[in-house]
User: Fold this.
Amino acid sequence: MNIDSIFNEFINVVRENKKYTIGLLDKGGTVTNCSNEKLLGTKLDFRSRDENNLFYPVKEKNFDFGWLWLYGNDENLELMGNLISDSLNVRLAYEISQNMLRQDVTEDDRLIKLLLDETIFDTNKILNLVSEMEFDQNKSRVAIYIYREKGFDSRKIERLKLIPDSEKILASLLNNHVLLIYKAVPDGIDNQGLKNCIKKYLGTLTNFDIVGDSYWVGSVQKKLRNYRVSYEHCLWLRDYVKNKKVEVVFFVDFLYEFFISRIGLKDVSGVFAYYKDSSKGLDIDELIRISDSLFENNFNISQTADNLYLHKNTLIYKLKKYEESFHIDIRGDFKGRFLFVLIAMLMKEHRKRRQVGEE
Amino acid sequence: MNKKIVLARIDKRLLHATVTLNWDRFINADYVAVVGSGYDDNPFVSSVMQLCLPKSMKVKILSEEGLIEFMNQAEELGKSAKVMVIFKNLTVASQCVRLGLKVKEIQMPYPSVAPKVKKLSSYFTEAEIEEISFIQQAGIRFYFQTTPYEAKDYGSFCN
Assistant:
C-alpha cells in the first residue's frame, strides 16, 4: 500500500488552512512527505513534543508507517492533531483492509485460472496455492456462472468474501460481464437442498448489489480436478438454456438433455438419414413440435394431444406414420421413444442448416 | 425521496474504524452521513473527518437539519442512493426524528457493561431513556448490535 498517496490527500486538505504544517516522518525522524516541500529530508526529534510541534505514531495492524508531525501556532493545535491522527489511522486501517481483500481476490483469480486451464492440470502449482491460501479443498462445491450485461463493479466483487456465508467461496471475474463463484455446499446435499442453498446465497448477493441477468449452476464436485467440469456444465447450460428471465438454471434439471446432446449427430444421421430421405412429404417442423411436446409430457399421448391442440387419434395417426417411416416403436417401447427424440434432434440440425442455406 | 437509509446507528465515536470497516462494506452504502458532530459549520474540520474514508465513499458531515435536507435532495434521475447515518448521540437522533426523519430502526453498539443486564436503566440515563421512548413512539425500533457478525438484539428495548 502506498501511504504517500493517502497522505497527499491529508496534505491537500491541511494546505487549505495556512495555520498548520503537516508531515510524515520515517521511523528515524526524517521528513518523507510534507505540506511544505522545503522541509523534505529534514530530521526531527519526534520525542521532543512541545506546544507547537506534535508527533503521533502512525501504526495500524502490524504496519509501522513512522510518525505524523503537525506544526502550528494555534490554541486548537492539540484538537486538530488528535483529529488528523485519528482520521489518518482510520483511513489506513480501511486501506489495509481493502488491500487484504484485493489480495484475497487476486489469489482466487490465480487459483481459478489454474483450475480452468484447458491445457494442463498443474497439480503442484495448484496444491501450493491452495496451501498458501489456506483454502479448504475437502468441501463439496458447485460452480455458479453469473452473467451481467452491464458488467460488474470490481469493487463490489472485492467485498464478496465479507458477505455472510461467503468465507468458503472461491470467486473470480472471468471478464467484466462474467462472475464465476465456487460455492461450498453441505456434503451429500440432495437436489432440492442444493437449489435452496444456492437461491438463498444468491438472494444474499442481491442484497449486496451483486446482481446478474442470468445464473447457471453447474454440477456439485468434491475434487479440485473436477471444478473445471462443473464450470463446463455451466457453459453447456448457458448455451443450451437461453434464460431471458432473471432466474437460476441448475444443471441437475437438465441431465437428460445434457447426455442426449453428447450423442454424435453424425452417428444418428448415419442410421436414420436413409429413412428420412425416403419418406416423402415429411413435415420436419411438425415432427420436431410433436417430439418436443411428447418429451415435455413424459410421452403421455392424451396430454401431448391436448398440448398440441390435436385430437388424440390424429396424434396417434401421425405417430404411426413416424413409426413406419423410421421403423421404430414410439408408443410402446422406451428405446423407440429415445430414438424418436434423437431423430427429432437430427431434424433440428437439418432445419438449422437449411435456414443458413447449407442444404 | 430516492435516498434510502440502510443503516442508522448511534455511535459517539462517529467515523471510528469499527464503524467504517465493519459496517460500510456490509451495507454497501453510497453515502456516510455523520450527524451531530458539531463540525458541520467548520469546513476545515469536516474535510479532515472526510479523509477517514476515500473520496469515492462520499462522507457528509451534517447537522440535524442538514440531514433532513440531504435526505430530501433528489439523486440524478433514475438513480437511488443508500445512506449510512451515524448519529453522535440519542439527543441528535431524536432531534432528527422531531424534524421528520423517517427510518425503520436505529442501531446502537453494546454498552460496555455486563452483557446479561437487560434493563435499559443499566445502560442509559433517565434523560436518554426519555429520548428512546420518544423515538419509539414515532414507530422506530431500537436494537443493540456492535458488529455485523452479531445478531440484532431488540429484546432490551421492549420495542
